[in-house]
# Entry
Amino acid sequence: MRKPVVGVIGNAHRVENRFQVQMVGERNLRAVAEVSGGLPMMFAGAPDITDIGALLDVVDGIVLTGARANVHPTRFNVDPCERHEPYDIHRDEVALALSVACVARGVPLFGICRGLQEMNVAFGGSLHPEIREIPGRMNHRMPRLENGEIHPDPTVVFADRHDVDLTPGGAFARLLGCEKIRVNSLHGQGILDPGKRVLIEGIAEDGTIEAIRIAEAPTFALGVQWHAEYDPQQNPVNRKLFEAFGEAMVERQKAAA
# Structure
């Protein structure tokens, strides 16, 4: 049996403020290759050059990665605000349609950070642009120095920062073998109202939604708000998630053989 091919969505980026590129963080690619056992294949978050049907004909799974840009508020009927930029409207168009298509076609789907948010919006949910502005919520953004710069040490930036309570008997609790985990936190935007098929399976200690699955999906269709791609080679929680994603792709290959 061939190695599963995993489509990993790209993000719009400008190099030297001149050259438009599509970019994927290497940790996402390594997590797919080293833990899920797949062959990572980046595809563009640009609808004019990414044919979703053709893409799903050649991949065995899809990863919607985290990203700097927020999902555009008009996707859930809210006016945009300069304060919550940048946006990546082209990735929005691809990712939202792709989320629905993956579930419909039984293609394993793993959403990480922005990916979880995209899955929620794709199924009719909404987002809050700054979770920390909701009374009683903590600051879920990455740690910064006193001068406002991002902390230079990635072990500090990606360190576990809060607990997540998992739904007893849910998909995450069964997969991870526990009902409480500890995760990193590097996001501003988060789920406000869950989509119609979005089942909440993990909640942070301050009430922030951290883990979801899509109801009645025929295969793996999970999203996490934390950055699971950072350390799945060592972190047992994140390793089990990427391993389960890989196993779902293998099972799909076997069923199609």
